[in-house]
Amino acid sequence: MNMINDKLKMKDVITLSIFNIAMIVIMLVTKICTMMLTTPAFDYLFYVGIMGLLCAPIFVVMSNKVAKRGTYLITGIFGGLFITVMGSPWFLPVMIVIGIVCEIIMMGEDIYRNPKRNGIAYSVYWALYALGSAIPMFFFKEQYLNSLKDSYTEEGIKTLVRFYGSWDMLLLIVVITIVLSAIGFIVGQKLMKKHIEKAKLV
């Protein structure tokens, strides 16, 4: 893929936007379900990983269809805007940085169609997403916890601190997220080869 063909065109941006909106819907439904139907411990440990698992088939098709630099960055921007709308504007610059990190991982020609490299970047994306959720606990903890007092119970705040305020729990969250994201990517890759590529949609 040469430098000219590697640049995003308007149709690519539209494609990325449509697929990212679909992923945001999945993310929203996932978060609502884990909050309402599971325990707080399960929610904190698994919700990002489940997002990565369920969004993977869509991302695999999207990244192979567009297959150009900027795919992860735009995905990060959409993810950051979603979290901003949900009430955490500080997460947007975090997601932009995550997108840039993944773009660095994906440097090279026609690399988006390399399932190993793309799978690694995808897992890194969600692992950093999970870590990014804990940033307030380490940089503006007191201000952050005070802002939650109106919407969280005292027990809820203690649970949040337990999972996002300790490195051992964060490591566990990251491991779970990487495993689930990788599984999702592998499944997505197989589904794409079985159905999408045969239909010549990618």
TrEMBL record:
Entry-linked NCBIfam families: Trep_Strep
Protein name: Trep_Strep domain-containing protein
InterPro entries hit by this protein: CHP02185_IM, MFS_trans_sf
Keywords recorded for this protein, A-Z: Membrane, Transmembrane, Transmembrane helix
Pfam families for the chain: Trep_Strep (PF09605)
Transmembrane segments: 12-38, 44-62, 69-85, 91-108, 120-140, 169-188
